Amino acid sequence: MISKTVLAIVSSLVATQAAALPCADSKHVQAQLTALHGEVLTHSGRLENSNILQLFMNERDESWSILVQVPSRGLTCMISSGYGIEASVANSVFDQVDLIPVS
Question: What's the whole-model pTM score?
Answer without folding.
Answer: 0.73
